[in-house]
Amino acid sequence: MKLFVYHTPEETPSHEVPECAIAVDVLRATSTIATVLAAGGEAVQVFSDLDKLMEVSEQWQPNKRLRAGERGGGKVPGFELGNSPLDCTPEIVEGKRLFISTTNGTRTLQRIQDAKTVLAAALINRASVVRYLVDKQPETVWIVGSGWEGSYSLEDTVCAGAIAHSLCQEMNAPMEKIAGNDEVVSAIALYTSWEDNLLGLMHHASHGQRLLRLNCLEDLKYCSQTDVLDVLPMQQEPGVLKRHAE
Ligand code: 3SL
To answer: Which pLDDT score is estimated for 72?
Structure first.
């Protein structure tokens, strides 16, 4: 297995697809997706465009759908939900399809949607992602951070490092054997420097600070936990993620 980390979707090679591509948007899209599926949501369907989301979700039974929209960290007016994973309780999401559009995370999922296997990872479901990789041994794996509007974000890179670090441990393999690019090594270094204080790192992250200004401290606390959800969101058809049954 060769693992590549890309900090943003824009950095991924445009003329290749890996066997397995993993989208990461710790704050907060992939944390929300994992939470919805762990809470019994039927599926999560992602859109970069809000009008397209409205058009497609209109064709779904109203009592079986939820619309979630985020722009600039805030909820899109007229949508039932924003992008807080804490709003996605079983009472709200069970049996429903979440139609979601966010600034960066849903764009990442669309960018990698042609890979043979597409997963969504966050710190909260890191162990489920690592277990899948160890079990299936895909030849090429990309971990793609969402960043913020084309630039690097600490929280996505630390999650990439958390996955890569655990993968080396579980496979009992040295980093050099797995790392396909230098970004893997630096992501692992970031993770090992902060693994005992991931919430502290979120406070340094520019998007963490943006969310704190929007009074989202509880979201930061939730999203900085590691391995608390046993759920693997996997793409079933382009843009549609469901819980993978092992
Ligand atoms: O950029 C995104 O996709 C969002 O996750 C941003 S936010 O955390 O909802 O503000």
So the answer is: 87
